[in-house]
Design goal:
The protein has about 150 residues and is an alpha+beta fold. It contains two helices and six strands.
Length: about 150
């Protein structure tokens, strides 16, 4: 009986630990990213191939910009062109020296392209539950939905 209780307690502990974000901070319901980690990156578009664009940052780094679904860009008549200078507010993930940039706002020649709300929920997802086209916000980033965050 004692062994069974210890086993159950251990399994519960591992279950709780596994659902916490890697930095140990629990996220509030509906929050897709940590607001403290949102940064601004300025740079020049090197290439655009939906759902990804490559940005040469003014900081000397190359970023893979995750743009979200193509239909959202087409429906809103948004376009990015190689050679354009842009400013992106979003979250960066560094994976062994490769930088992935998940934007919530892109500023392009004075025009604002809003891709996510202040909690990181994509504007096309209607609160993270997909939309009428049966699209959802999973699978647009490498690894899909990692760490409880929306990764498009």
């Amino acid at each position: 009986m004692k062994t069974r209780i210890i086993l159950i307690a251990t399994l519960l502990l591992f279950a709780v630990i596994s659902i916490l974000p890697q930095n140990g901070r629990a996220r509030q319901m509906g929050e897709r990213w940590d607001k403290d980690e949102v940064v601004k990156v300025t740079g020049t578009l090197k290439s655009v191939s939906h759902p990804v664009a490559i940005v040469n940052g003014n900081d000397g780094k190359e970023y893979e910009l995750r743009m979200g679904p193509v239909w959202f860009w087409k429906n809103n008549d948004y376009k990015l062109q190689p050679g354009e200078k842009i400013e992106i507010s979003g979250e960066i993930e560094n994976d062994n020296g490769k930088y992935y940039l998940y934007p919530y706002v892109i500023n392009q020649n004075g025009k604002e392209i809003k891709l996510a709300d202040e909690d990181g929920v994509p504007v096309w997802s209607r609160g993270g539950r997909g939309n009428s086209r049966n699209y959802d916000n999973r699978g647009y980033g490498r690894g899909g939905n990692r760490g409880g965050r929306c990764r498009w």
